[in-house]
What does this fold into?
Amino acid sequence: MKAYALTALDIIFFGKLLMVNPALWLGEWVFHFSFLLVLLRHLRFFLNPVPACIWWIQTPGLIAGFTLPVSLVYILIVRLLSGRERYASPANVFLLGLVLVISSLGVVMNLLFKPNLVEVKLFVLGILSFMPVAAPESVLFAVHFCLVLVLIPFLPTHIFLAPFVMMEARKREQALHLVIHEK
Amino acid sequence: MKSKRSFTEELLPQQILEIGACTQCGECLKHCPVQDVTGKPSVSPPEKIRMFREFIRSTDGLKSRLFGSRDLDRKLLDDFTRAVYECTTCGACGQNCPVGIFTQRLWPVLRKEMVKRGLGPIGVQANMPRAIMNSGNPYEKPPSERYRPWFPEHAKIVDRSEIAYYAGCTGAYESQPMVRGDVLVIDAIGAPFTMLPPEEEVCCGFPLFITGQHDQLTDIVTRLVRGYEARGVKVLVCSCPCCVNIMTRDWPVFYGKPLPFKIRHITQYVSDAISDGRLRVKKELHEAVIYHDPCYLTRGVGVIEEPRNVLRSIPGLTLLEFERHGINSRCCGSGGAARKIYHENAVAMGRLTIDEAVAKKADRLILSCPACYAKVNESMQGHKNQIRITDIMELVSTMIEGDRS
It folds into this structure.
């Protein structure tokens, strides 16, 4: 039971990362939480009618839209400034860079060049219903949308697999003293 | 190189998930002893996982399944093989992994995959199966010399007993003060104990297991288990953490059923004997000693407190700790059968251990692993920092009442 509780903490609060690198933990947790809120906020473009719960998270999602690129920049700084964990695979850097550009474009559109949101929703629903309509007349939106399409196949599978591995790790940790000691 | 053999054949489902779950965050590099001395990210844990993912994609990816497996870059395979064999398999990366990947078990399986493909093992590791087949030990030393040079004259071995002692090859041939200390202490506890004859006490299989050469393992394990079973053994005591690790975790797998006896590390056996009064440590030692935790004893089987209990039972002794100790201990460089191949890495890692012990102002460095004992002693040769190195049972054997050593 303790293993499941610890796993839940690991998944929600990245407990193991907090133990090994609190500085990176701050950035990673804010990034992942912001990413989740931004995704949920965007559901208003995909659902019709929009459920009440999606409306509730519009403001937190808006704030997360700003914290997302900031957290990404913070993660990059922490990783580049710390000597030993400067390992970064090209795929990882590409992914971080892509999300940074997408999220920054989102912020710019929100603050400066807001596209017609009704047109955005019609465009997205058109794709989902196989009845495409013209895209909004916004270059930034077009780039934002295209980069999201590029991002999808590169989304790391660890997001889906890590919770299972985290659970096994906690179970193993709890059972270590039983490997050779008396039960 | 094109292969139809899946790269996941040797992996457990859990391990396939682990490979997919690596976030490539690089946190593990801070804890990797190979990184400490080489600084080469190309041999780091996330890089090994990244390369192995490439291999899996080449045989099991969607494209490969639809259109057939694709060619693999031979250089990538060679780079991976070198990286996975340069590792000491200490498991510190997994212990500090934010996801919790059990790397101490994962790396040996990936080595096994490389062996199946004819790419591993490397260097003298390839001689081990033949050496063990011919002589019963990976050092190809004669069985007649297994006990004779170090076995205490007065210690008595009985034919049958519930307690048995397994010396292990590295202890018997390369770290003899250690195994001599073991026998002296077991003898002083007083319970009769048995040992297999030297020609029957063959390698536990760990060097073969850790280098991915599993062919002989079932045979070796079966012979040893039956040998102890025939002597009525209920508790098998051993001081080598690598032996203890494979005996506990893998012998039941290769034997095909639960073992008919329990496995105990010698510090567990001695700690119990001190607690219940069967062994009394009366001599005093007014020294500050620092204890190095072997990776396969702590992260492998969770024996952390018992060696400390044994040391604390010595009157006058002050116990110091390394910065990284217990479950987070740092490898001394002798792990993973890499010490004979990547000798310079191993010596450099051993010297880091010595340097920290000296910096902590310890009078003595206490070890409890024959591989650590051999390598750290070797690392001290010609090194600027010097410290007295003693095995834990070697020390206890000189501290016990009625010491006959």
